[in-house]
Each structure stands twice: as structure tokens, then as C-alpha cells.
Amino acid sequence: MNKVLFYLLIVIISQKMMYNNQIFAQNIDFQDFKSQFVQKKLPVRYIDDANVKQLKTLPINYTHWLFQNSSDTRTISPVAGFDMKYNNWLAVFFLNYSDQNNQFYLCLFNKNGVLTDSISLDYNSMMYSESNTIVEIDQWNCIHVIDEVIDRGAGWFMQGNNVANYLTFYAGRVEWSRTTYYVDESGKFASGNGPRELVSEFLLTLGSANFEEAYSFQKIKAWGSLEQFSSPNAFGGINQVVFDTMKIIYEDDVHAQVYCHAFYSDSINWGMEVSQVFYVNKTFEEPFIDDMKVISFSKQMKYSCNDFHFSEFFLKNIDEHSFEFELTIVSNEIDAEKETNKAGQISGTAKFLTSDHAVYEGDCTLHFYFKGKSMVEVKEMNCSKYRHKDLNFNGTYKFATLSF
Q1: Could you tell me if 104 and 121 are in contact, meaning their C-beta atoms sit under 8 angstroms apart?
Q2: Do 135 and 280 lie in a common domain?
Q3: Is-contact 244 175, C-beta < 8 A?
Q4: Do 186 and 44 belong to one domain?
Q5: Please, which residues have CB within 8 angstroms of residue 284's CB and are 6 or more apart in sequence?
Q6: Cys-Cys with 206: which of 141, 181, 214, 394 at CB 3.0–4.6 Å?
Q7: CA separation for the pair 213, 215 (Å, rounded)
Q8: Which of 199, 193, 137 shows the shortest CA–CA distance to 167?
């Protein structure tokens, strides 16, 4: 073929494609597309299979406009639209294939109606997978992807920009998150750790004794070097951190304050129940913790003894002089008269005679001999009033982690 003729043919085809796309653009614009969506405010609950089948399907030219592809045969089924921060707008819809292998889409548009970013989720996997992954948009307009089950079901997969298999929208922040997608100021779904997630990950990493990684989440001068940070006198004895509250109490473009209520289990030092505020610096590409203040704390400890079917020796309000305790034991043996397990329970306040020896003296006596903080030997004297006659509280009680 003549080179000039071939070039002319290419130009004609290109112009025709541009013309087709121009027709689509003339027929559909952003405001028209936006008007096809029911505008909703958070919270919006999970869309079940029955509701999906009831959604309307837009004419194919809306697909062509959105993807700028006149040969695209997928159809759009709007779910809802949301006004986001910085005058952004989020469209949530299903993109339907002819073979019904649907995709769930979240598309973000800026104030000028320009598509800035999107996340797609496989609908079949989302509906039928055994795992439990949740996507949330909170009142700060952040996208959260929370993997509550680490061992995902066989039906779950991640490829391309698919990020989850189970979808929920609601306004409240959750307790923790593995992955977070932010709608940032530029209108992008940015993956990374937000202030709350950063603090959560710091505590979870600290509780896993991964001190080097935990150290990297913060730049608190008072905590010193990595060696000082991970020493037994600092965080080196911690082997679990659990929390029931993790929430942002203040946030702007530069700083955030995260309140946390947690139990720190420590086999070298005393464990603690702590209410604290972490101060997060967001001015750099990677946010970090730059300060922490304790609001309240109480030293606590828990032990158990393998000699019993169940046992719990719980200490609280520990100081250098005394501690409150509750000691519970349950035997494997059955009390024939009561048809229950033989058991015992006693509580009170014990006083330290030395740093490793404490005594309870009420209407009976208990001696507690501490071997470091990881073990305590209990010896009773005449405490039959608080237990079954065939039992006693004597035993070696070993360190156990604190929990809610």
C-alpha cells in the first residue's frame, strides 16, 4: 500500500474515533451523569443481592462517556452518590458485564466534574466469599479497607485495583484497620496509614514484640534510641497490647490527636491499663507519632495456674505498698452434692513486705512470693471459708496476658 494512502487512512480512522467520542461528550456531561444517581448521606448500609437486581441500568452512552470508549459494552447501574470534602463527589455503581461478572465501582470526581480516581471491587467475590473484609467511608471522607479475618476464604482474591469483597458504608470510625484508602486533598484514593491507623499499627506491632518496626512509627525524643526503646526497662517486656477504644479527637491538615484506651501486658514489668493521647505529625509524606501523653493508668497483672481446670489471679491498683486482688480457682472434680465443679474465690488487698513478698491478712492469710513479674507462688493459711473443703489456693501461678 502507498505510504501516503496508508497515512491518510490512519488519519481518517483517528478523526472518526475522535468524532464519535465528541458525540458521546456532547450527549452526556458530568451533571447529566450525576443526576442519574440518588444523592445520599452517610450512613448507607450494605447492598444485598435482591437490591442489586432492582437497580436501574443506564443507557450505554453513559458508559461510553465515562470510559471514553465507544466499543465498551458494559452497563452502569447507579447505587448512590455522595458529596465529599473539597467539593469532590463520589459515584457508587455496578458495572455489568454480559456474563454477569459484575464490578462494584467507586469513582471520585473533582468540583469540575473530572474523574480523578476510582476503586473497583469484584461483586461475586464480595457477595459470596467466606472472608470478612469491610470497606467504609467515614465522616472525615476517608476510605477504609478493614481485613478482620487474616486467613481469607478461598473465594477471595485481589488483582488489579480490586480491594475488598464485602462492602459497607457508615459514618462511624472503626476500632482498627489493616489498609486505608484516603480521599486526599488532590482528589486521589491514596493508600497508607491515617492517624488512627498509624497508632493502631504501632500498638499492634509493639504487642508483637517487633520493636524495630514499632520504633519506626514514632519520633519521640524522650524514648531515645532503638536500643533504649526496646530495653526491658522501657517497652522490651511488652508481649501484647489490646485496645477497645481508638478514636481521633482532633485533626487538621498538619496534626492529629488520637485517644486510646488499652491494656499493655508485660512479663518483665507490671502490666497496665492506660488511657492516653498520641500526637501524630502529618506534615511529611509518612506520618509519625511525635508525642504521647498519659491521661490515666493503673498497674495490673494476671496469672493462671495449670493445676486447675480454670484459674485466674488478677491484680489491680498495684503500687509499691500494696495491690488489690481477686483469686478464682475451679477444679476438674465435681461436687456430688451441688453437681458443680469444686471451686473457690477470694478477694482483698495485699501489702508488700518486700519487693517480692506480699501478704493478705483478713479472716485468713495468703502469702504471695513473686519471682520477677512472670510468676508468683501462692500459699494459703486457713482459707477454707472461701473454697471447697477439698481444695486450696496453693500453687505456682504464671503470667497471663490482660484482656477486656
Answers
A1: yes
A2: no
A3: yes
A4: yes
A5: none
A6: 214
A7: 5
A8: 137
Length of the chain: 404
Contact of 45 with 168, CB cutoff 8 Å: yes
Instruction: In whole angstroms, give the CA distance from residue 154 to residue 21.
Output: 41
Let me know if residue 36 belongs to a domain.
Answer: yes
76 within domain boundaries: yes
pTM of the model: 0.56
Rg (CA), the chain: 30
Number of structural domains in the chain: 3
The span from the CA of 254 to the CA of 276, in Å, is 20
**pLDDT tens digits along 102-133:** 677 778 788 888 877 676 665 554 444 333 34
Q: Quick one: 295 and 344 in the same domain?
A: no
Containing structural domain, residue 325: 305-400
CB 164 within 8 A of CB 135: yes
Give residue 288's pLDDT: 92
Task: Specify the 3-state DSSP secondary structure of 215.
Answer: helix
Using DSSP's 3-state secondary structure scheme, residue 319 falls into coil
The strands making up 75-83's β-sheet, listed across from edge to edge, are 75-83, 89-96, 103-109, 115-122
